[in-house]
Design a protein that fits this description.
This protein is α+β, with helices and mostly antiparallel strands. The chain is built from two helices and eleven strands, in the order αββββββαβββββ. Strands 6-5-4-3-2-1-11-10-9-8-7 form an eleven-stranded antiparallel sheet. The N terminus is likely disordered.
Length: 162
């Protein structure tokens, strides 16, 4: 029983990757960017949690469900119901599981200096939170290096992963 418990514990520990994150929130109307730090946790097959500012700011993908807490407000959506997040979910899932990236008209991939830059530009609609998502991953290991969510009017939230 002890060996089974130890094996299960080791499997869980090895499947969870925690990394340090620096989050920069840029608002065009504000002079100085808000910079906070935290951590990112990844669990296969499709769970990512980025918590910064002591857990006050969060970006969580759990399956098809996305939860974002910014400025004390929580936004929840599902990629099955929100087309803006559908490709984003598929790309993140492929990166986490080191699989081939999906293709589509809203997706471009460039490779330079050992990194893949994946840009997702969803069809423009009213009331969407983001105009594009940019994900930078290590070309060899598929480790996420940066996630940038571009908003309207030059605003963005950028997560740099160490």
């Amino acid at each position: 029983m002890k060996k089974l418990f130890l094996m299960l514990f080791c499997t869980l520990v090895l499947s969870v990757h925690a990394q340090n994150v620096t989050r920069t929130q840029h608002r065009a109307a504000v002079t100085q960017d808000a910079v906070t730090t935290g951590n990112m946790t990844i669990r296969k097959p499709d769970y990512i949690s980025i918590l910064t500012d002591g857990g006050k700011e969060a970006l969580i993908m759990e399956g098809t469900k996305f939860t974002m807490t910014m400025g004390g407000k929580q936004h929840v959506t599902d990629s099955r119901k929100n087309a803006q997040f559908a490709t984003f979910h598929e790309v993140l899932k492929a990166v986490i599981n080191n699989q081939t990236l999906p293709t589509g008209n809203d997706l471009t991939v460039t490779t330079k200096n050992g990194q893949k830059t994946i840009t997702i530009t969803p069809e423009k609609k009213k009331r969407q939170l983001f105009t594009s998502f940019v994900l930078v991953v290590d070309a060899k290991t598929s480790a996420i290096r940066e996630l940038r969510m571009n908003g309207r009017k030059g605003d963005y939230t950028d997560y740099k992963i160490q």
